[in-house]
Design a protein that fits this description.
Layout (H helix, E strand, L loop, with lengths): L5 E6 L13 E3 L5 E4 L4 E3 L2 E3 L6 E7 L6 E7 L5 E2 L7 E3 L10 E3 L9 E6 L8
Parallel strand pairs: 1-11
Antiparallel strand pairs: 1-3, 2-5, 4-10, 6-7, 6-11, 7-8, 9-10
């Protein structure tokens, strides 16, 4: 009898913050997420920004590798998904609840990684 494997997902939020932007931030539920192979998993990301148009991003970091861009979502406009993240990965930005949860469908072993949610800084200053 075939049993489906369970995979653990860990995700951490990543935020590029400049001193002028201290009110802007992202938050997550603490701890990892466990999913069943072939199932659905949703990773939460709550944000706060003073900008009218929020720019949110999701990144995936596999062990011993750098974070890879997955997708972006904007308050105004649709954003995009990177190659390799178009089929099973989605995020919907909800400006009312200030959230942009990442949904992974048909979970696979290769999805096990650390996932980062990022909010683009709204004040850039002199770079």
């Amino acid at each position: 009898v075939g049993t489906k494997a369970q995979y653990a997902f860990q995700y951490t939020l990543f935020f590029l913050l400049l001193p002028e932007c201290t009110a802007d931030h992202v938050q997550q539920q603490p701890g990892g997420v466990i999913a069943t192979e072939g199932g659905l998993v949703t990773l939460s990301c709550q944000y706060n920004t003073s900008a009218n148009n929020a720019y949110l991003y999701w990144f995936k970091q596999e062990e011993n590798d750098f974070p890879k861009y997955m997708l972006s979502r904007y308050s105004f406009g649709s954003g995009d998904n990177a190659t390799g993240f178009k089929e099973r990965f989605d995020a919907r930005l909800d400006a009312d609840s200030k959230s942009v949860p990442l949904t992974i469908q048909r979970v696979q072993l290769s999805d096990s990684a650390v996932y980062y949610c990022a909010l683009q800084p709204t004040v850039r200053g002199n770079l």
